[in-house]
Specification:
globular; three-stranded antiparallel beta sheet; 135 residues; alpha+beta; 5 helices; Sufe protein. Chain: A
Length: 135
């Protein structure tokens, strides 16, 4: 872990929330795996959307630096309970500000933002293929 990190950063890196997997076969689950080419960090993010279009659960796994782990944890907490429409507006700036990321670590914010968008897109594709409206 990098020195001089914020208490929020330390909390999410030391004890990450919502680490794990959801059932990829469920039509309610959207899955994304994204990578930051510059450093090789990888995040797998999954969302489970309920019948009202709200994200009931979000889980992640990350192979990367401490900032990527903290970003994944904070992102899953932000997603839970939000509508898909709200989640589509998610910005990595939220992660940067809450975790007080230095410019060198802001790639983790972009990683989280890209993962959210890709997980939502996957969920929408899966629903449309199964004859259900996207949202």
């Amino acid at each position: 872990m990098e020195p001089n990190q914020s208490p929020e950063f330390v909390k999410h890196f030391s004890h990450p929330r919502n680490v794990g997997s959801l059932d990829r076969r469920s039509r309610r689950v959207g899955t994304a795996t994204v990578t930051v080419a510059d450093c090789g960090d990888v995040m797998r993010l999954q969302i489970e959307v309920d019948c009202q279009g709200r994200i009931a659960r979000a889980m992640f796994k990350t192979f990367g630096c401490s900032a990527a782990i903290a970003a994944g944890s904070l992102t899953t907490e932000w997603l839970r309970g939000r509508s898909v429409d709200q989640a589509e507006g998610f910005s990595g700036d939220y992660i940067t500000e809450r975790l007080a990321l230095t410019p060198e670590k802001q790639h983790s914010s972009r990683l989280a933002e890209d993962a959210v968008r890709a997980a939502i897109a996957d969920w929408k594709r899966r629903r449309c293929r199964q004859g259900q409206p996207a949202s």
